[in-house]
Amino acid sequence: MALRGRNSAESNAAALADLYEQYYDRVTRYIAARIGNRDLAEDLAGDVFVRCAESIGSFEQRGVPLQAWLFRVAHNIVIDHYRRSSRRRNVPLDEALELPSDHEPQGEVEQKLIMDRVLQAMAQLNPAQQQVITLRFIAGLSSEEAGSVMGRTKGAIRELQRTVLKALRGRLGDDLEKVRFGVGEEGTQA
Amino acid sequence: MTERSFADILDECLDRVTMRGESIDTVVAEYPEHAQDLRQALSTAMAVRKAASFTPSADAKRAARLRLHDAIERRQIAAAKASPVGLLRDVLWGGRRLATAAAVVAAVLLGGAGTVVASTSSVPGDALYPVKRAAEQAQLPLAFTDSREAGLHAKLLDRRVHELQVVTEEERTRFVPGLAERIEHHADRADRLVVAPVDHAVADLPSMVALGNATEAPPAHTPGAVTASRPATAEIPADRLLELNQQMVALETKIAQLEAITRDACARAALERLTASLRERREQLLAVLRKADSLHRTPITITVVVPTPTPATASSDLTNVGAEEAPTAQPAARPSTKPVLPLPNQQTSPPFTTNETSAPTPTPSRAPEAMPTPAARTASPSTPTPAPKREQPPEVMQAVEGRITGVTLVRSESGGGILLKVQLTNGHGVRVLIERGGPRLTFGEKEAGLADVSLGVRVRIIRETATGKVRVVQVLTETRGGARLDDAGVGDSVAKGGASMTGADAPAVTVVVVQPGAGVAVTLGDVPREAAGKQRSGG
Predict the structure, then answer these.
(1) 20 to 30 A Cα–Cα from B92, which one of A29, A120, B51, B185?
(2) Contact residues on chain A for B442, CB-CB shorter than 8 A
């Protein structure tokens, strides 16, 4: 996505509206995965778009995709949140999983527990590792776009994501073999 | 192949699986030499995505959209103040018609920076009128929400009527048909944006009532089918109702103005047609408002029967919601929809009591013999007679007050329960989870935490530590004055088994959750305020 036409007020507004429609959900999921709180992530996602509206005039179209700029803003919002709260997230997503009830089929309980372990494993990654997997697999950016956000080359991103996936695999072990994907889930856009 | 090459291959495969929807098997098959490593990495990536997947709430999304709109508007106002010429340039490059653009250029040359402001009083035939129209048109794409767009159209309608008055007075009659057409257009757009959602919601409410109507035999439900077969929402959007009302009042004013204009001989025919059209529209608005008002005031009982733990005795319309173990439940086996709780506004004694599960003796206020209420009979007038006789009346587990404008079936839970959203008059909403096996709500056990806080409406999760069950209990709503019961206060009142009501201004209406098979009785409508007042000391 790129700004349409001139950098006029109207085209900026239209570009922001498009950006919001296409990326609000992904930005919210990205922030939730980074800070571990979905309610707060929804608020912060609102902040992201407001900040974009305030600074879109300074956005210069020099080959940087608009969505990369958006997630850079989202990243900065996350960093600001860390600074304000003076602590890093170290717990899984707060409402990621409802606690299993005794009426739930065994298989579903197991799936929830596995997902919980995935989130816990993600929380133990270092910031760059967390960022690369959230940008790639939760925000749905390409490695090149993720590189734009993180200020790295796409080659560096590819290498980083390889090592992160390997590390996660090592922590989660055979649990991952038990993850079931719903119909169409495997491969649908985040 | 080197490690670096594997990183590239993996990247390509990740894109194909996570973005293009290809299966892991398909992409792995193309790289047999890396099959195992690729499969592990891809399944890890997919598990990460699945674990972090969730859908942001519609409320939050709406709020974010409004904030974005405000931010854009602030920025544009600031830009206009800093450079009115720049604003005109934006209007020009924003895709306006050439004639308009030419007019704006001319206006800038003639009038300078204050042109747009100066153009606001122009009418058709004036040199600056195209500037005014272009500036108006530039605002419409920025409205973002239906509500704001409707407001903008209402404002533009107002301007056109004023212009109509001016051109009629000045006998520029050739502009009248065009203005009449624009008035019609703005009224039509505003209608579509405001009336349609209200009308739709109003139309949905009766169908929600059918949920609890045992005379209608719904098809057997599969877990997914129930949600699809229900209306998406039965809430009457209060803000839209307000807008609709305002729009109707405004239309009356416009009609009066137009009728005055039609005394002029010029363009009488066009204006009379327009007046007739607006009058007809006003009648339509009134009809929707009356219908909404009538539904809002009429007590309605919605009965949703909770799945019972034993499939053989499972009954009710929603018994099959997610009830994998009871797929053969037939309509004939739904007779226990009969028991419906006494509705609070139909009782003479204090209507609310919260009984502990371990203390089944109901308090007099919830006397089980009062069960078959008129409203209940309305909800299920011809319940099949061979209803399994319920030996014990349903025990009231929890009663919570709140003025309710709508109840929405949010979803069926994987465990077989249902999640209802109860919308309150002041725009707040609470979610009530009715679990498969029944809301055996137990109080005083270890608390898992405050699960959902929605603008002062609190829902508390109680975890049964021994079994790991999660129960959701609706606890309280915010008082109108903004005060809330603090957490300790809520916990205390619940622990004592008392009704957890708020202050003297506590809104009225009741959600009653009862034992499995008995149902959830939700009353829409007003409950005498005195009844709410009595609840304050509940406990």
Answers:
(1) B185
(2) none
B30 and B100 within one domain: no
CB B19 within 8 A of CB B46: no
pLDDT the model gives residue A47: 92
Domain end marker among B239, B270, B298: B298
Contacts of B142 in chain A (CB under 8 A): 10, 13
Bridge-based pairing of strands B300-304 and B457-464 is unpaired
Q: Is the per-residue pLDDT at A39 higher than 50?
A: yes
CB contact under 8 A, B41 and A169: yes
What chain B residue is nearest to A108 in terms of C-alpha separation? B414
Q: Is the pLDDT of residue B458 over 70?
A: no
Chain B CB contacts of A115 under 8 Å are: 47, 50-51
Using CB atoms, which residue from B7, B43, B57 is nearest to A176? B43
Query: Does the residue B342 lie in any domain?
Result: yes
Q: Are residues B119 and B221 located together in one domain of the fold?
A: no
Residue B528 located in a structural domain: yes
Closest in A25, A154, A179 to B55, CB measured: A25
Residues B108 and B191 in one domain: no
Query: What sign has the CA pseudo-torsion B249, B252, B256, B262?
Result: positive
| Residues B508 and B440 reside in one and the same domain | yes
- Calculate how close chain B gets to A32, using CA atoms only, in Å: 8
Note whether B223 and B306 are same-domain residues: no
Mean pLDDT confidence for A20-38: 89
Distance, in Å, from the CA atom of B77 to the CA atom of B87, rounded to the nearest integer, reads 9
**Count of domains in chain B?**
4
Confidence of residue B77 (pLDDT cuts 50, 70, 90): low
- Lowest mean pLDDT across A153-157, B88-92, B245-249, B408-412: B88-92
CB contact under 8 A, A165 and B6: no
CA distance A89 to A127: 10
pLDDT value for B178: 79
- Report CB contact under 8 Å: B53, A98: no
Predicted-complex ipTM score = 0.82
Same domain, B264 and B172: yes
Enter the tokens of residue B262: 């039609």
DSSP states along B193-252: HHHHHHHHHHHHHHHHHGGG-TTS-PPPPPTTHHHHHS-S-----HHHHHHHHHHHHHHH
The parent domain of residue B20 ranges over 3-49
Domain A9-178: CATH class, spelled out: mainly alpha
Q: Which of B282, B298, B314 is the last residue of a domain?
A: B298
Q: Which of B142-151, B194-203, B220-229 has the lowest mean pLDDT?
A: B220-229
Min Cα separation A24/chain B (Å): 8
On chain A, the residues whose CB falls within 8 A of the CB of B79 are 9
**Residue A21: closest CA among chain B residues belongs to which residue?**
B65
Among chain B residues, CA nearest to A160? B7
Express each pLDDT in B119-159 by its tens digit: 677 888 777 777 777 777 777 766 667 777 777 887 888 88
